[in-house]
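Lecture 7 notes: from sequence to structure.

We start with a single chain of 215 residues. Read the sequence below before looking at the structure.
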Amino acid sequence: MKRLVALIDYGSGNLRSAEKALARAAAEHGTGHTIVVTADPEIVAGAERIVLPGVGAFADCMRGLGALPGMRTALDNAVLARGVPFLGICVGMQLLASVGREFGDHPGLGWIPGEVVRLAPADAALKIPHMGWNELRILQPHPLLADVAPGDNVYFVHSFELRPRDPAHLLATTDYGGELTACVGRDNIVGVQFHPEKSQAVGLALLRKFLAWQP
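Now the structure, written as C-alpha cells:
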C-alpha cells in the first residue's frame, strides 16, 4: 500500500515548490511516501498525511476549498475523526482559525480557535507584507520543530497572522515590530505561517519531521 501525502489543490498555493520540497524530504529521509497534488476528496480521505498550502486572501481560499465537492467532509473525517497528520502552510495555516478578518469577517475551519488579523508592527517603518527571513522562537517543544536551533531563520510572506485563543496552541513566534505567530498546533494538526518549501535546510528538516510524525 502506497504511503500517500495529499497536497490539496484548491486553486491557491505554490503547489510545485511544495510538491518538490516534500518529495525531496521523502527521498532524503527514505520514508517511501508518494506526494500527490489533488483536488479529489477520495484521495484526501485515503491519504496517510495531508498538506494544505495557500496564497492570497483568506476568504478567496475558503471559497476555493468549499468549491471542491466533498472536500470539507473528507478533511473533517480524516483530520478530526481519524487523526491523520495535517500540515497547513501560510494561508493554509490561517484557514485553521475560527474567523479571518481580511475584507470583512469570514469563517474558517475552526480547528485552531482564534482569529486572523492584519499585521500591525510597532515600528511604522516596517513594510506590510512582511517578506523575508526571520528567526523562529520556539515557545513549546514539538516533534516538527525538534531540529530548529537558536538563530535559525525561515522565509515569510504575509500581511496577516493567526492569533490563537488558547496559548497552548501557539508553538513558535517570530519578531517583526512585535511578536507574531509563526507556528500553531494541537493533537495531529500543525500550521506554519512561513514557507518551509522556501526555507532551505530548516524547512526541509521540518518537512522530514512531518513525514515521520506519529501524533
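The chain is about 25% helix and 30% strand. Keep this in mind for problem set 3.
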